[in-house]
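Continuing the batch. This is chain 6 of the set; chains 1 through 5 are on the previous pages. Same settings as before, nothing changed between runs. Recording input and output for traceability.
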Amino acid sequence: MKRILLSLICLILICISLYFGVDYLSTKKIDLIEVIVASRDIGPREIIEVNDIKTIFIPRDYVLENAINKPEEIIGKITSLQGLIPKDSLFYKTQLDSINKIPDAAVPLLQRNEVAFHITNDSGGLDLSTFIIGQTVDIYGTINQRNETPIFDLLLSSVRVVSIKDRKGIEIGKESTGSPYSITLAINQDHISILSMIRKTGTLELYATSKSYSGKESKLNEDSKILEFIK
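Output for chain 6:
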């Protein structure tokens, strides 16, 4: 009985050794490597976040030369307009762009019910050099009245900056060292008509204040004196 049990144990050990030996040789022969793939189906013009990627092992021969396998070259990038990146697919250089290099860079940064509102510095009176993408600002409006004192008041607070470009339409930053000419703001779509009306009859000014960094984004100052003149 002891001999049978001992033989059985030896047989099990041999089988285990063979299994791991074959597995090791197979892995070594196939040459598996760890790669970064999509953790879900990713559509056009989506910004890649940490949760959108994962790692798996695949044969090295399956990885094409233009595949991207560094997280810092994937996270924060935006997918191109063409096609879909399926779940478990590799990322390729032709599929991703830097946000500041695409014409519609501001659009993916908008939240629900927000639209892009552009302000240009045509008159030269608007200093955009103090603003950066991602910060929030307050929008003040001025309406000039004939023979009366101009009306100046806060319109919107906590408005997010999503793009700043030079006169050539190039995003300020690494791609352009020119002077800021236009700024794009994320505005609640319900407030666009108010800003458009004031821009036609008066002027808009941007300020970074303590109110800019508190509360709800693109919040309308319902007590603004200017609103009485555009109803």
